[in-house]
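[Q] Does anyone have a clean structure-token version of this?
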Amino acid sequence: MVEIGQMFVSHLIDAIFGNLKESALQDIKSIWGFGEELDKLESTVTIIEGVVEDAEEKQVSSKAVRKWLGKLKNIAYDADDLLDDVGTCVDVPSSNKQETEVLYKRGIARKIREIRERFDVIANEGRYLNLEKRDGGRPLQRETSSLVNESDVIGRQVEKEKIIQLLGSDDDELSVLPIVGMGGLGKTTLAQFVYNNERALVESASGSKCDLSYLDAAQHHLEEKLNGQKFLIVLDDVWGENQIHSWDSLRAPFGVGAKGSKIIVTTRDEGVARMMGAIPLQQLKGLSNNDCWELFTRSAGISNAHAKLEEIGRQIMKKCKRLPLAVKTLGGILSSKRNDVLVRQWMAAGFIQPKDIGGEIFDDLLLKSFFQYYTQLSGTSFYVMNDLMHDLAESISGDEYFRMEDGTSRTIPEMARHFSRIGDKEGSMSLEALNKFKRLRTLLLIDLASIDKLILNDAVMELRCLCILDLSITNLVNLRHIDVDSSPSGWQLMHSICFPGIGKLTSLQTLPAFKVCKESGCQIGELKNMRNIKGGIRISGLKNVQNIEAAKEANLKDKKYLDELVMEWNRYDNSEDGMVNDETVLEGLQPHANLKKLLINLYGGVSFPSWIGHLFNLTSIAFEYCRKCKRLLPPDSHLPYLRELTLKNCPKLEAFPEANLLPALTMLRISECEKLRALPMLPSLFQLELEWCGEKLLCSSVPNLTSLSILTIRGFESLRSLPHGLLKPLTTLQRLQISQCDDLKCWSTEDWLQDLPSLQHLEIYSCRNLESLANGEGAKWRGGLPITLKTLEISFCSNLKFMPTQLENLTCLKELRISNCDQLYSLFPDDENNDYGLPTTLEKLEILYCHKLEEQCREGGQDWPKIQHVPHIVIR
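[A] Here you go.
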């Protein structure tokens, strides 16, 4: 059978062309330097766009064209995926962001060039297929049938009889009967015969298509058909009040008809009706309230409504302003959920844009029996596809669409873009196998009723082209486990999905994430009966919880097996009402006392409920983006086992809890807490990270934390040098990281680093104005670095010119890594002393993206004799 599914790629080409014109992409072109390659790509796509419509028509009779379209479609998919990727590449997540960004840009530029070259090849091949360029697409004509099911028409009896009475008069002259009213009133339904141009009139009159291209010929043809005949012509949806000359020309052939001939005109514009010489207007009004209610219930499929529901429904009808179209549309929305899901999938796949158009397309396919409405014996109703239609669709789709059914073990085609799995007899299901199919755009899991474990892992998150993900899991009554492979991407996947009706799965023991929505079946109360939930759960969308009573419906206090809990409000509400509601909702979300880890994110309250200070088993707690919070823990708190505390973006936090409330604290992270001025002495603290806070917090707190082994200082942008005596008391410090301190130019004026007897690892990252690692002008014999140092890493210090002197005396040094330091010329001082070198203990030397230094250190360079003894050297 001919695979006509090679197919229709014009919608893909249109999508690519649209993407190239997107304003966001235009900005990225200039910022990231993709402009030239993207412009070339646009030029090639323009050439192909001109001939693709002709190719789609010729593919049925030409195998060569069909093959060419298949190649083009694969390239078009890859191009569309790439442009989506480019459009979202402004923010590149990475701990080493600058380095990753450079590599990412290079990779994207290379991929754009490869796609453009593939398009060039396919464009050249197309020249040998005699494809014709077309200036525009096929014209779209608005057309309705003269047929109407009278039983579907509600109301309008009075208007109908009045028009019939007027049509019955045998006037000597041709009469024009107007139906005037705003859109949606049912003007076309009254007339029910429409065509919007002169040629269409002939086609309807003769019952055959009009092939005449000129008005004069068409009018003579029409005159022949109407001569001596009594006729009724309907001109639907007429526009153009100022087109009186066009009307005079159009009506000329109608004068040859018999006495009593009539023209019905439907229009929104009263001026149009008067311009056409119409007899007294039929001004159409809205339906009566009773007619509106009858139309609504019929459209919605409601036979008998409860009195209260009818009252609500009639109130809704008032909002429709008695417009039949509005009433029918609203009823249709309530009658169908399944088609709405399908329309959303069409939109996600890029087949259509406006949702209302999708609804019209679905209704049209339903009328043509492409889809059929089916009701089971149980009363459940849904839409199905006719068997013949399904077989045809399968043959057309080729390898692009792939369905795996229960018990089958077919190999997934390499070119598959849309994948569905229906039924599964195995006890567990993993999506790991999808790792090989990174081009997938659709993933549907359907009717997996026997599954008791669903594993969502990195395989799904690696599907960067995925547009549609449907995990219909709420019918899996035996499901006990939903795993995310403990990866950040898996968490992201679960965090973004809402599973309506998930509360039915009372056997669940693991549920990594639950997204609260306002819609029925997705509210916080769905968690009420999930008493067996174990491990951790992330509850997001808490802004959608209305009050404390709704929060208590989650029954978190009864979930004794829960170890880890993340509470997330998703968006920050700066209003007073938002603050009060957040506080009351959090009060109602009290978990069981067995909880060990707690994270609260985007909370808008000023303080936290008292229950937080009495979760005696807590080992870790984090407060992130709690921007109104002033106080963390109540004074009577007691958290004897708390080891980790994170405070991130709490700009109004002024006081840290007393040390006696946190006797076991070993790890403390503080970021973007500008008003926090001091920390108490925390005798058990092992690791401290300070980021983007005030210098007062740094200077007043660090010297008192003498038990520290790991210290990170990041984002102190106005820090010009490290304060005198800041680190000297830290005799147990083993690892020090200083990063993103843009104003830091040099160390302090004394050799304080050499007084850190336990320091083994030093990392300096993204201090862009740092010029020297020597202490002032006269560095001592070890350049201020302690002899205990094992690793030294310096990255993205673009103004660094001088390394510490006498590195050869760092006899414990094992690894030295320098990257993206463009101004660094040499590892050694430029003076007459030629005894400088690297220690014999050094095992690994890496020099990355330091152009000046690379030349010195490569074999044959000036510094090569001093470094060639290092066993492992990487220079690039």
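[Q] Thanks! Anything notable?
[A] The mean pLDDT is 76.
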